[in-house]
Design a protein that fits this description.
By secondary structure, this protein is an alpha+beta fold. It has 4 domains: 16-117, DnaJ domain (Helix Hairpins, Orthogonal Bundle), CATH 1.10.287; 133-266, Sandwich (HSP40/DNAj peptide-binding domain); 269-344, Urease metallochaperone UreE, N-terminal domain (HSP40/DNAj peptide-binding domain, Sandwich); 348-384, no CATH class. Helices cover 24% and strands 26% of the residues. The protein contains 9 helices and 15 strands. It has helices spanning 19-23, 31-45, 54-70, 73-82, 105-117, 141-146, 287-292, 351-363, 375-383; strands at residues 133-139, 148-159, 174-176, 185-190, 193-198, 207-209, 221-232, 241-244, 260-266, 273-275, 278-286, 294-300, 303-309, 318-321, 337-344. The strands form 6 sheets. A 4-stranded mixed β-sheet has the order 10-11-15-14. A 3-stranded mixed β-sheet has the order 1-9-8. A hairpin with a 2-residue loop joins strand 4 (185-190) and strand 5 (193-198). Helix 2 (31-45) runs antiparallel to helix 3. The longest helix is centred in the N-terminal third of the chain and has 17 residues, at 54-70. It is elongated. Mean pLDDT is 80; it is low at 1-14, 87-107 and 117-123.
Length: 384
Amino acid sequence: MSVPNHYWGKVRLSAKRDYYELLGVGRDATDEDIKKAYRKLAHRHHPDKNPDNKESEERFKEVNEAYEVLSDPEKRRKYDLFGHGMGAGGAGGFEGFGGFGAGGFGDIFEDIFEDFFGAGTRGRRRAERGADLRYNLEISFEEAAFGIETKINIPRMETCAACNGTGAKSSTKLSVCPTCKGNGQIRFQQGFFTLSRTCTHCHGEGRIILDLCDKCHGKKRLRKERTLSLKVPPGVETGSRLKLSEEGEAGIHGGTPGDLYVVITVRDHAFFVREGNDILCQVSISFVKAALGGKAEMPTLTGTMSLNIPPGTQPGSKLRLKGKGIADVRGYGIGDQIVKITVEVPKKLTPKQKELLEEYASTCGEEVDPAGGGFFDKVKNMFE
């Protein structure tokens, strides 16, 4: 059948560009490749970035149409087989920017909106988590070794009990915002898009306070000092942090409270020094006890005990008391107490003591030098 010549003037001929070519990807492109290409082009040709630019506007429409098809596995299969003549179930089913249905098109479009207008463009103001707090606690060496249960006073922001965090004197003193009709958002037209922004009248609340709470004056929270029980486990050290979940400041708009972190500082001990889970100390014994051996009273974290000094103990020797250290904070046993020995030499001797030492030196073949002070002074200098 022939078409009369006067019909050709009314026939609009158009050739659509290949969808893969539009997005700049190959036919073997993965879903992720297609998504990345679409996002890049959508940003570049978005009408808000190119106002009054018809060419960019048309390109933006084409890019969206191409993504709507290629992001849907079934539509892409039909397009690969039949091209633009894929039938009613193909590209002809594209509904513009209201059809955010299958294929994840709506999700990615929301991502682009967030890039342009911020994450707070949808819905009422979101719940905000309360701030975390820090408390510095100083404890003794013994308290760190054995643990302690104590009370701490924490100043923090808490939800106002009088208004239950609404900021209003009563529930009847809250009214739906007349500007956003309770949505917390104002919708407006931008080209062929309908967008939204936070309502400046109610600041995204959706409600306005007609009469402020007498306690918090509309701030919804009050600063209070709260006493908390704290259990410090054995084995903590300076810099250890204890977390008390949801004991920080109260959240806003129904948000969860923050956490409280207690940071430990351990005071120095007059006698002991910590090294890992071991404790170190230094003890002086007499020259006679070092030579002949014996017992010495030794302080420990749990009280005084008798320490066995082996005969011939040398200055600087280290003796170990098993299990007399500090418990591991993770429960991996208990450290030891390590005792460093120093030998104490008396500064003065009686004539009889000198005589006995010089006699000892003589039996050892040691020469006595009267000008140098004798054998005793040599011994003394050796241990200093």
